Amino acid sequence: MEQFAFKDLTLTLFERCCEQVDFHAGLAMQAYLRSGVDDAKRIADWAKRTGRQVTVRLVKGAYWDYETIHAEEMGWPCPVWSAKHETDACFERMAEVFLDSTPREANEGGVKLALGSHNVRSIAAALEGMERRNLPKEAIELQMLHGMADQLKGAAVDSGLRIREYVPVGEMIPGMAYLVRRLLENTSNESWLRAGFLEDADTDRLLASPHHDNGKGSGDLSNVAPERHKLSPAVEGVGDGRAFFTEPLRDFSRADQRDAFTAGIEQATVPQVANDGTVEDIDKAISAADAYFPTWRDRDPVERANMLVRAADIMRARRDELSGVIIKENGKCWVDADADVCEAIDFMEYYARCAVPLFTRERMGLFIGELDEQWYTPRGVTGVISPWNFPLAICTGMTTAALVTGNTVVVKPAEQTPGIAKIMAEILWDAGVPKEALHFVPGKGETCGAALVRDPRVAVLAFTGSKAVGLDIIKAAGETPEHQAFVKKVVCEMGGKNAVIIDTSADLDEAVLGVRASAFGFQGQKCSAASRVVCVDDGGGVYEEFAKRLVESTRALVVGDPKLPGTDIGPVIDEEAASKCRHFIQRGKDQCTCALEMKVPDGLEAQIGKPYVAPAIFTDVKPEHDVAREEIFGPVLAVLRAKDFDDALRIANDSPYKLTGGVFSRKPAHLERAKREFRVGNLYLNRGITGALVARQPFGGFGMSGVGSKAGGRDYLLQFVEPRASCENTMRRGFAPEL
Fold first, then answer.
1. Is the pLDDT of residue 187 over 70?
2. How far, in Å, are 224, 491, 543, 545 from residue 539 at the CA level?
3. Catalytic site residue 492?
4. Which of 231, 375, 444, 552 gets the most CB atoms within 10 Å of its CB?
């Protein structure tokens, strides 16, 4: 039970196995978990209730750093105690629980306690509890590592206590990692062994009770995250007045969050929206937006910002329901649907805080007699053409970026997902955005989209979608009729053919999981998804080992109903997308080696009502093969060979798309070189290449991946405004107020 995320699963699995199979069962449990005492009571009560005798190895916990770091990264409450004395106190409280459940008869259920500690105070506290309960010395077993605290072991043996000495056995590299971890633990500034043997601390300090509050501990980084990270300005009067911090994803390892999410899916209803908007509807919407623009432009920026904050609050209150709508409308699985809603919330909270300072005049310099100022002004009517793959997040991001900077907006959503886009518009209207400022026109791209792009009253076009459509929009926007009063601004995000480099030093455990998630999350239907892996093959077998492990790991993915929590692979968006994927899978079979083509369960497509394409992995792929060149936008992955890191960078860069890329390496020189030479907008090192977070990983590429600044970044709003400046002579007949 090494990771908190798997704790409840581990305990449940342990209980089920013990109930179904008669074997000598044991379990390690950690005292550094804040849930430690409750977990101990759970196992103790279960053991007594079922009549099962089990051994519990009680330890302090080995992954405090990971749990602390991961919790902050996710914005979750930290699951481990923040100070060592709190862990020591929890250890003693858990030992009391287990001692209370020690079986006194051969056929009595309960827990046999084993102490995995070298801390004399912790051991003595448990022994005192044993004596207080009149238990025999055999009721507790001491477990200690070979080569550590030999004097302590000798004293325990002399006292008639049971000792089990253990030693790690296995391969050299994992063994060295284990040794280093033990050395770090035992030489830390809070280690009992260090205090007792190296620092020669006095007895009172070594045996001091950990049950106290000295003002250290119990803190949680999630409580101070906005101030700690300063991801945005903290604007007085906007929201809670604090800086922005990302909305935490659901922690689906927790049963309460799974239950709430399930309920949200069940109650979710996809609005029935006909894509029947006409060119006339677009014209009417643009006319109304154009007429209202001066009013909206001159609205107090703080008022506009707080409308976004209120909309974020509404989404936050409805987030599980909104995830359910996304799951039912476009086929995302749980994690991706939840992330879609969180990103929409983040865009609004972040842009609300970033927009207000743009409209405050900023003085440039301190020249006496001269006042130089700079500020920004809205551009005008903005046309938003949003995609189906992030139907809430991207639609919300483009729409609210335009609104909060004082532009009126006409939204033309993707034809496949108009339902969730309509809900977005309704939420913004409910939050106070006037209907004159935000217009929603669902319709065909060939008619409504084309009319929106070409109308001379539209000042800004924000688009996310395919390269072909994006280039057409850029071309059309460049045609300026005689009566058009401005040059249109185009914010255009297109596609990607993203590569992940695996070098010979890479941690393959991390690389396999990172690539698998990046390639097959949401069925590969992300512009950021990994569709190429470039693995360095120097003859040492890394390519073959990586490919083998990737294939076997991918086999474990579950193709199923996206409404179910255990599903990893859901449907693709429509039959056109499925046909394209199947075409390239066949091309891959013709040109290279199909290492894996998973199967879609019989009857699943009929049950869900959407087409499926299961993951496919191709090996022995050459750079000129179709699966290595073309954007497929599906669960199809090409694994290429490179002779060295130079060659890997060359292959990875050999694409017109420049969106995301990744490197798995334990060589700092390779990571630093990738930052200089891997030509992508978003580079990820030793992690997956999808899942960019607002303000933390501003998202966007260059080349054929698009034009414009990064979404969720500090420069994004500048695309929706025009800069202005003024210079005022403040001298009056030779005098200046400042002098």
1. no
2. 49, 45, 9, 11
3. no
4. 231
Instruction: List every span in the chain annotated with CATH 3.20.20.220.
Output: 4-213
DSSP, collapsed to helix, strand or coil, labels residue 715 as coil
Across the beta sheet with 362-363, what order do the strands follow?
362-363, 370-378, 721-729
Q: What pTM was computed for the model?
A: 0.94
Distance CA 657, CA 633 (A): 13
User: Tokens 């827990």 belong to which residue?
Assistant: 111
CA dist., res. 26 & res. 111, Å (int) = 9
Tokens at residue 565, please? 């929590």
Contact 538, 570 (CB under 8 A): no
Would you place residue 141 in the very low, low, confident or very high pLDDT band (cuts 50, 70, 90)? very high
DSSP letter at 472? Answer: H
Superfamily of domain 226-494+715-722: Aldehyde Dehydrogenase; Chain A, domain 1 (3.40.605.10)
pLDDT of 67-90, one tens digit each?
999 999 999 999 999 999 999 999
The yes-or-no answer on residue 479 being catalytic is no
What confidence tier does 166 reach under pLDDT thresholds 50, 70, 90?
Answer: confident
Residues of each domain in the chain carrying CATH 3.40.309.10? 498-693
Helix axes 36-50, 84-100, angle to 10 degrees: 10
The residues, any chain, with a CB within 8 Å of residue 33's CB and separated by 6 or more, are 4, 7, 39, 61, 79, 80, 81, 90
* Strand order through the sheet with 53-59: 26-30, 53-59, 110-116, 140-145, 162-166
- Kindly name the residue from 493, 535, 592, 631 that is annotated as catalytic: 493
Name the residue among 413, 443, 407 with its Cα closest to residue 426.
413
pLDDT cut 90: percent of the chain above it: 87
Place of tokens 């060149």: 629
Residue ranges matching CATH 3.40.605.10 in the chain: 226-494+715-722
Strand partners, 443: 277
What residues contact 520, with CB distance under 8 A and at least 6 apart? 554, 557, 568, 569, 615, 635, 637
How crowded is residue 567: how many other Cβ atoms within 10 Å of its Cβ? 16
Q: Can you tell me the distance from the alpha carbon of 277 to that of 286, in angstroms, rounded to the nearest whole number?
A: 13
* Nearest Cα to Cα of residue 350 among 498, 475, 230, 255: 230
Could you give the strand order of the β-sheet that contains 593-597, starting from the edge strand earlier in sequence? 593-597, 616-621, 636-642, 530-536, 498-502, 660-664, 682-685
CA 322, CA 337: separation in Å to the nearest integer?
A: 8
β-pairing verdict for 706-707 and 489-493 = antiparallel
CATH code that applies to domain 4-213: 3.20.20.220
Catalytic residue among 354, 448, 492, 527: 527
Q: What's the fold here for domain 498-693? A: Aldehyde Dehydrogenase; Chain A, domain 2 (3.40.309)
**Amino acid at residue number 274:** A
Distance of CA 390 to the CA centre of its chain: 15
CA-CA distance, 570 to 330, in Å (whole number)?
9
Paired sense of beta strands 162-166 and 381-385, if any: unpaired
pLDDT digits (tens, 9 = 90+) for 4-27: 999 999 999 999 999 999 999 999
Note the helical H segments in 431-541.
Answer: 450-454, 467-477, 508-520
Distances (CA, A) of 729 to 11, 359, 363, 396, 426: 75, 22, 14, 43, 48
- Reference 225, options 355, 349, 310; nearest CA is 349
